[in-house]
Amino acid sequence: METPCADRHQDDAQHQILSCHQNTSSGTSTKEPVSGKVIITLVTGLAIGGFLYFDLGRFLSLTALQDHRDTLLTFADTNYVATVGLFIAAYAMVTGLSLPGAVILTLASGFLFGAVLGTLFVNVGATTGATLAFLAARYVLQDTLEQKFGKSLKPLQEGFTKNAFSYLLTLRLIPLFPFFVVNLVSGLTRVSAGTYIGATALGIIPGSFVYAYAGRQLGTMHSLKDIASPNVIGAFVFLGLLALLPVVYKKYAATSA
Fold first, then answer.
1. Which end of the chain is more exposed for a tag (fewer CB within 10 A), N or C?
2. How far apart are CA 167 and CA 88, in angstroms?
3. Is 2 part of any domain?
4. Half-sphere exposure of 225 toward its Cβ, with a 13 Å CA cutoff?
5. Which range of residues forms the domain containing residue 209?
6. Do the beta carbons of residue 126 and residue 91 sit within 8 Å?
7. Alpha-carbon dihedral of residues 223, 227, 230, 231, nearest 10 degrees?
8. Burial classification of residue 63, based on how many CB atoms lie within 10 Å of its CB (0-12 exposed, 13-18 middle, 19 or more buried)
9. How many domains is the chain partitioned into structurally?
10. Is residue 26 part of a domain?
């Protein structure tokens, strides 16, 4: 027969074991996000380092594209579905890792698939890669930045979040803002992933179409400057300013009221 003292001793022992288990679990869960951030940072760094070390950028130049044009066309005609899949994956990797070469890939889409389908495939690849970069930046850096600069960033965060779609659409339409910078900076804001994906997918259509259409005349092209003329850039800027009209209207209406 067990005494009350023995029961109490047994309960205390079980309580200590349970507390120890909870502390161990909580310590493990605290460490998991840190290890995840380290893994993402290492994988990204190794991928970018490999790209630079093996000089893979030499394959993403206008000269290389022109030299291998016939080979690429033959492969695409023979393996159309595989070419589409490889193209979208390559585009997502280039944009996701913020590597140079997206413009060359967009030109390639034009002569491989045509202007319309090329624009579609570019949109899928670019939006996928941009979203991966956005999510990685948010996961790795956002908490740290908010802890250190939360008070100073709060007004910027609130203003950007209220008009996130219009701001992002403007940044995507105007080619003066580097694509990878918009990806990374957006990840540090509180804009929702849905808003980011929608504005990105819509905003890159005009620029993608211009370069994909130009890719059809790849053989006669001497420089990328042949595409990005002042008139074309001016048209993009005009579209970007149009995207800001809702924001201007909201502020004007609020002031009037």
1. N
2. 26
3. no
4. 2
5. 34-256
6. yes
7. 160
8. exposed
9. 1
10. no
Count of Cβ atoms closer than 10 Å to residue 103 Cβ: 18
Burial (CB < 10 A; 0-12, 13-18, 19+), residue 184, is: middle
Structure tokens at 247: 């924001």
Burial 134-153 (b: 16+ CB within 10 A, else e): bbbbbebeeeeeeeeeeeeb
224 secondary structure, DSSP code: G
How many residues can be counted in the chain? 257
Alpha-helical regions (H) of 54-101: 62-67, 69-78, 80-96
Q: What's the one-letter identity of residue 188? A: L
Residue 14 within any structural domain of the chain: no
User: Strand, helix or coil at 55?
Assistant: coil
Query: 3 in a domain, yes or no?
Result: no
Tens digit of pLDDT for each residue in 55-94?
999 999 999 999 999 999 999 999 999 999 999 999 999 9
What's the rounded Cα separation, in Å, for the pair 131 and 198? 10
Residue 208: φ, ψ to 5°: -65, -40
pLDDT < 50 stretches in the chain: 6, 9, 18, 20, 24-33
DSSP assignment, residue 174? S
